[in-house]
Amino acid sequence: MSPNSALSGAMGKRPLEVAAGDVTIGDPSIKGAQITQMGHGHFQTALLPRKALLRACPNAEDLIAGSIPGANPITSMFLRYYDLAHAYADKLAAAELDAVSQHLFDLAVLMIGARGDVAEEARTRGLAAARLETLKSDILAQLDSPALSLAGLSAAHRVSPRTIQLLFEQAGITYSGFVLEQRLLRAERLLQNPAMRTRKIIEIAHLAGFHDVSYFHRAFRRRFGQTPDDVRKLSGESK
Predict the structure, then answer these.
(1) Is 203's pLDDT higher than 90?
(2) Radius of gyration of the chain from its Cα atoms, rounded to whole angstroms
(3) pLDDT-derived band of residue 238, with 50, 70 and 90 as boundaries?
(4) Of 105, 123, 103, residue with least CA distance to 115
(5) What share of the chain is helix, strand, coil (3-state, %, to 5)?
(6) What's the CA gap between 60 and 8, in Å, rounded?
(7) What pLDDT digit, counting tens, does each position of 205-219 carry?
(8) 226/26 Cα distance (integer angstroms)
């Protein structure tokens, strides 16, 4: 995977020419296998177990050195989940790393072209998990924005609003419940931050994504059993 530079090379007798942002399958066991970046950038590799891959996608070896479009929705999902996994890998326990690895494998076989029961299992397990994590990542990135909405996420991820709601419900929370909880947690962190001590409560509410301050006060007290002012004062006393 080379997000910002074309790839050139060969896998044995097969020439390899891949545009920036696209993906290819390589096989390091092929004599003379080599891949070169055509410009500056960073190169990424996901190692997949051969036997498991061929069980899921018997035609995988036919696709070696070919180009898989990065704009394909499944490929795009694979690349985003890969980046998330890489960013958080050192913070995950062994069992969590195993789960993330399985999800990446599931996305890979869907990207390569798994069919039938294998594809259905991969969609149920890996695709659902990856889609939920990328949705959460997008929500957190725009948590303070009034434009954050179920409809906007639906359009950006090219899935229906109901699909998003079901993904959250299957994880034991509603979409709106997740957004509210994350905004409240952000508000609590901001109130406890000494650098934010001079900011007004209404500013803190807006930074956390609340644009109805009365609702913010009610929701905050219901969640933490204290008012925003109480949390700020107690935080200052504990320093």
Answers:
(1) yes
(2) 23
(3) low
(4) 123
(5) 60, 10, 35
(6) 20
(7) 999 999 999 999 999
(8) 57
Q: Which of 92, 100, 107, 99 is nearest to 57 (CA)?
A: 107
- Residue 236 confidence (pLDDT) above 80: no
CA-to-CA separations, 55 to 50, 100, 116, in angstroms, rounded: 9, 20, 12
Residue 134 is encoded by which pair of tokens?
């990328």
- What's the token pair of residue 106? 């599931």
Q: Residue 14 carries which DSSP code?
A: E
Contact between 153 and 135 under an 8 Å Cβ cutoff? The reply is: yes
In angstroms, the CA 204 to CA 200 distance is: 6
CB 207 within 8 A of CB 144: yes
Place 4 in a pLDDT band, splitting at 50, 70 and 90: confident
Token look-up 């931050």 returns 193
Q: Which residues of 176-208 are buried (b: 16+ CB within 10 A; e: fewer)?
A: eebbbebbbebbbebbbeeeeeeeebeebbbbb
Q: Which of 227, 157, 160, 138 is nearest to 187 (CA)?
A: 227
The secondary structure of residue 21, as a DSSP letter, is T
